[in-house]
Amino acid sequence: MIGDLRFQPDVPEELREVLAAEGLSLLGVAPAAVPPASEAGERRELRSAEYREWLSCGYHGEMTYLERHAPGKFDPGRMLPGCRAVIVVGLNYYQRFEAQHVAQRRAAVGRVARYAWGRDYHKTLGGKLRRARRRLQERYPSHGFRSFTDAVPLAERLFSEEAGIAFIGRNTLAISAPLGSWFVIGEILTTVPWSESRTPSGVHGACPQSCRRCIEVCPTGALRGPHRIDAASCISYLTIELKGSIPLKLRPMIGNWLFGCDLCQEVCPLNAPAEPSPEPDFTAWRAGPVQELERILMIETDEEFAGQFRGTPLMRAKRRGLLRNACVVAANVHARSLVPLLQRRAEDGDPIIVEHAIWAIGQLAVET
Length: 368
Known about the structure:
The chain is of the alpha+beta class.
């Protein structure tokens, strides 16, 4: 359980009080800056070099903003001058996926990654952090504070590791003993000189030495090896971040994933103890674990799309992306009953949707 003191870094009681009031029990403090010659300094320099090399390989795909992020990735002072500490929090979003979620639907469906089942976590976690930040600002009026939920350059997983709330697994995700990798990360930067929190070495465990489940399960081979991901091949990238055409060779590998992918987390043995999140914004499903493809393919306008998915992470894909994905999934799950709708989308006003609808019709025609 997250309340187990073994997994809780040693943080100032006032911080724990303020953050716990927002349901953020996974909490630690990382230093904003470290001496270059220290072990921590060398680790950051190594991670910085690895990040630049990762960019040079083109593994970031069309996410060109990641190139702009490079200078500030490991330097919180660029986002808050005089920053002394990084308060790092984790919020559990895990919900169980049951086979009946698909089996009980007669219609063809596409799967949605767990973090997107409920309310957009940027809104939920962002609100919690803003309220906590205001309370801390009241206590320290002469100091600066800024809060973020993964919308800044900061290397969040590195800072979660330095704060003692997680370690970085082979699948490149932050893994915490009480939550596995089923949590989203946020942080509050501050000029208050709080000390780095500590947990005993190895308290969060480690990837089993011979385990390669995450690498082997990835349909597109996006995990090139331990700690090395080609994001441009990742199903989450292809169905969310990519704005144009999904490469032909990768379309069949997407399977029934409509938005995001959980495969490398589902097979991870360190996720076995995970307990469902009690967070109401996540337990009250909006998009839910599956979406009926027919319902998606019937969306005619951006306004209809927003009316259906406003407040959920699926808004990030926009109408173009979600209908594009639905076309691909329809072909992959052999949904021949959807051919009339695909034919309608083949005359859509968006050329990307048209392209993928025509491809799906062709795939389904080959099967008959």
